[in-house]
Amino acid sequence: MKIQIWCWGAIRESFLKEGISIYLKRLQKYLSTEFVEFPPVRNASKLEVPILLKTEANVIADKIQTGDILITLDEKGKEMTSSEFAQYLEVKMGSGSKRLIFLIGSASGLDDSLLQISNDRLSLSKFTLPNQMVRLVFIEQLYRAMTILQNEPYHK
Amino acid sequence: MKIQIWCWGAIRESFLKEGISIYLKRLQKYLSTEFVEFPPVRNASKLEVPILLKTEANVIADKIQTGDILITLDEKGKEMTSSEFAQYLEVKMGSGSKRLIFLIGSASGLDDSLLQISNDRLSLSKFTLPNQMVRLVFIEQLYRAMTILQNEPYHK
Fold this sequence. Notes:
The structure is a homodimer. By secondary structure, chain A is of the alpha/beta class.
């Protein structure tokens, strides 16, 4: 199974780029994981939010293939401890699906249509985190989950 | 009022250092904020966890002054949205205390005695985050809270 993290736009801040690449590299030992960065919608700042979200949702919906598992990361999703997340991941990995997709919304959020077609909604925190920092926090949790499942000490 | 973030040890990863210094700098416009990094307890890895935590707790308790507000950041604390945290901060800032201290435990956690003397316990996430990443996530929330209170757009 492949894990993909879908998100909008490239990382701007160099410190986030560096941090994400560190965890992404460590993670490859356990899991094939990649970020898929969609180009931001043109003139996004001039669009009304519902229209922007709908446009983004259409891009995403087009990329979903039969058999994909889609999980959205949004503040209103369910929260888990790191151990619970590790177990959750183990179940998904045993499901026979080829792609497990975690979708991070744009700064404007996620369209309801995506929440409806998603298999699950996860939340990292009740706090609103910067869209780009979510990538760092989440990839670290993926790595942590794998060390939990492999019963390995966490590499600090 | 001064905000201090108390924690153990210097930041090792350069990307975290960079990220934290970016938010710390932005934050000074609104709030006098500093990190106070206590030197790690000697031979910490050879001590049993309860003894290590007790040793750390003694260091912390020694530094607390009358009138300080002490808030621990730990997974079992209460979670808030960013807006709730901003309001929470506003109340604390209006309390007349000179120091508002947020305490991040070491990788081993926090001794019960500290949880008992603390004025409050906050949690950033149900996930276990790396001790050093907590500093980044938290300083960003402090900055976000100030932009919320000042009704300013968040500087992306």
